[in-house]
Amino acid sequence: MTKIIKVQKGTKDILPEDISLWQFMESTALDVFTRAGYKEIRTPIFEATELFQRGVGDTTDIVNKEMYTFEKSERSLTLRPENTAGVVRSYIENGMHRLSAPVKLWYKGPMFRYERPQAGRQRQFHQVGVEMFGVKEPAADAEVILLAIDFLKNLGLPNLSVEINTLGCSECRKKFRALLIETLRPYYDALCDDCKERFEKNPLRLLDCKVESCKEIFAKPEIQQVIQSDFTCPDCSIHFENLKSYLDALGIVYKVNKQLVRGLDYYNRTVFEIKSENLGSQNAVCGGGRYDTLVSNLGGEPTPAIGWAMGMERLASLLENKFDDKLDIYVVSDNKTETLKLVQRFRSLNYSVDFDMAGKKFTKQLEKAAKTAYFAIILGDDEINGEYLTLKNLETAKQIQVPFANIDDFEKHMYKFIRTNSSEWMQSKLSMLASGFTIS
User: What is the reported pTM?
Assistant: First the structure.
């Protein structure tokens, strides 16, 4: 017997019954981001390994442990573990710095990290994200945070919270770094192996550690005193205060989390996360921040920039019980010729429509309609002889008859029927249907 080849560990098929949810997330992203002036960019799935070593940082877990890297023709290539570095590479290579600022870009697609698969994250996972180049003022920080919230609201996600922090500039961090190392040094032996490795190279990353024993150390009063201290220079402090004033003006509720550092080396000044109470301990659905030195670090002109990314698997896990992909109409009939004509007509009116092609009995077709659609159009012998259609609301079981002679006015009948027999979902159709005609 031939051995069955199975999907690889840490990867997952997105099946037909799930794809409508993914298309909903993607179309919502296109709608929300386009309205804010962002243009989609699609970068290659693999890049030169050096791009991530220089961009993401060689002290990060991503570069040290999690990259899928391979050699080809004496070149080291890596499947992208994140997309900011790739977008920055494209920004530089294609001369986007010559465009009028701000340059606003968004992306979606698969990323790859070799790590332990867990709920909401796989070795091949998907992200949607935005990047803004060319604006150093905190109004840009406020916009990208607002954009993330707008996107999540348009997806219908509840129970969200926003956390922000400032990492300051390189000069700010020098003072904080020295003080943090000095205060933590007596506890060095009790730190986890990862924190010991980061201790001298990038001590701020220690604050992002998820190991409980390290968390207990960081919670000690003398260490918290250092963490909670204001180490930022006047310019960085003003930047952060202005950001908070913008968020206050927008009515965005947030919490300042002084231990929020994010996991990538390129961040400076503003960092933020948006969390969901419905995801347990790994509850961040969005993370981002400012990276004003990354463009120049990768060979471009000095360019302020800010962005964020969201894991789409995590979004899908929050949406899976909320998303409904039922058809608008299911045609129930034994007359295939007339059914095909009806289906084509209603699809041309932008309804989602299906019908039975397998020759099932009438009752079985009605059962299928009830499971898969909101409305049924019934075309049986009585309807054909009487020259009318029966339009049935499958939620309320109420129905009306539409004469063949009035078939061109079907949308008027549909509108009236929805208005008097509508579910909450069907209300979303009202404005679309009403736009093309007047109801008397």
Answer: 0.80
